[in-house]
Amino acid sequence: MSDPSISIIAVSYFGAADARLLVDSLLPQDFDDWQLVIVDNSVDPTERELLQELASDDARIRILFSGKNLGYFGAAHHAFDVVSPLGDVVVMNTDVVFGGPTVLGQLRRESLSRDDLGVLAPAIISERSGRDQNPHLVAMPSVRVAAMRRWATATPLLTQLSLLLSDVRRRKRPLPGTQPGEVSLIYAAHGSFMYLTEKYFASSGDLRHPLFLFGEEIYVAEHARRAGLETWHLPMVTMNHVEHGTMGIRRSRAVLQMSGKATRYALHTAKAAAQERRSDSPQPQNGRTSGSQG
User: Fold this and answer.
1) I want to staple 97 with a disulfide (CB 3.0 to 4.6 A). Which of 7, 25, 154, 195 is the partner?
2) Quick check: helix, strand or coil at residue 17?
3) CA–CA separation, 234 vs 111, rounded Å?
4) Helix, strand or coil for residue 123?
5) What is the domain count for the chain?
6) CA 120 to chain centre
7) Residue pLDDT tens, the chain, 294 long
8) What is the 3-state secondary structure of 24-90?
C-alpha cells in the first residue's frame, strides 16, 4: 500500500466523543487518499475502548496509545515518528470537524498549486462565537507587543484576567458578514487545525515544539518564515470548531502557568527574529554608512 497524500494527526485528551464526530465528517470527503492517526493522551480505559471502536470503521484509521499525556505537539511528534508520513500532514484537535465533503480535496489542491507554500489555514469557525479563529496572527509580533503579552501573563492570576478580558472584547465585536473574505498571506495559522505541506518537512520542518502546551502556532510559523515558505489563510475552506474540549476560559493553575511559558517563548522568538534582522542589515563602516562620501 502506497503512502497517502495526506496524513491527519488528531490529538485526543478525553476526546473520544469528538473523535467520532471528526471521523463522521472525514469519511464522506471526496478526496480519499488520506490516513487518520488519533493519538490518545488520556490514559483511560473507557477512552481507549471508544477510540478502538473508531479504528474498525475504516482501514485508514489508526489509534496510538501513548501511555501518558505527551501534550499537544508532543503527541503529534510521537505519531509523526511512528507513521513517518511522506506527504502533507494535518495536525489538529479532535473537536474540529470538516465543514463539508470537499474540504480535504480543496486543501490538497491548494497545496499543489503554490510553489512556496508551507502552511494552510482554513476558516475555523468557533461554535461558541461564530467567528473564524484564523488568522491566528496576521504578522509576527514585535518585541514590544510580545513583551506586553508576557507581562500580562506573568502570574497565573494575571493570565486568567487577560483571558477573561480578551473574551469580553471578542464578544463585543460584531460578527463578520456571511461572505468569506479574501485569500491572504498571514504569519501564523490557528493551532487547532494546521495543514503542513510536504515542503514544510522537506525544508527540515518538524513537530519538535519544546513546550507541553501552547505556542505551537509560533513554532510552525517561525520555521516557515525562516525557510522562505508562505502561510495562507483560506476563508472559503471551512472547518467547524465544536470546542467540546476540556479547556474553557476559566483554567487550572497548571494550564495558566503553561500559558505564561508560551508567552515567554513567544518573546524569546521575537527577540531572536529582531536580532536576525539587525544582523542582516548593512552595517556602518568606520562610523560611516557604506554609501557616504569621504
Assistant:
1) 25
2) helix
3) 11
4) strand
5) 1
6) 10
7) 578 999 999 999 999 999 999 999 999 999 999 999 999 999 999 999 999 999 998 999 999 998 999 999 999 999 999 999 889 999 999 999 999 999 999 999 999 999 999 999 999 999 988 999 999 999 999 999 999 999 998 888 888 888 788 777 766 666 665 567 789 999 999 999 999 999 999 999 999 999 999 999 999 999 999 999 999 999 999 999 998 655 556 678 888 888 989 999 999 999 999 998 888 766 655 544 333 333
8) HHHCCCCCCCEEEEEEECCCCHHHHHHHHHHHCCCCCEEEEECCCCCCHHHHHHHHHHHHCCCCEEE
DSSP codes, 82-122: HH---SEEEEEETTEEESSTTHHHHHHHHHHH-TTEEEEEE
User: Nearest Cα to 34, choosing from 105, 98, 82, 110?
Assistant: 105
The answer to whether residue 93 sits within a structural domain is yes
Which residue reads 548593512 in cell numbers? 282
46, three cell numbers: 473507557
**293 inside domain:** no
CB atoms within 10 A of CB 17: 13
Is residue 291 situated within a structural domain?
no
CATH number at residue 19: 3.90.550.10
> 195 is written with which cell numbers?
495543514
Residue 250, judged by CB atoms within 10 A of its CB (0-12, 13-18, 19+), counts as exposed
Q: Dihedral through CA 171, CA 172, CA 176, CA 178, nearest 10? A: 70
- Contact between 231 and 238 (Cβ < 8 Å): no
Examine residue 50 and state whether it is found in any structural domain, yes or no: yes
Instruction: Tell me how far apart the terminal alpha carbons of the chain are, to the nearest angstrom.
Output: 70
What is this structure's pTM? 0.89
Amino acid at 28: P
Cell numbers describing residue 82: 511512528
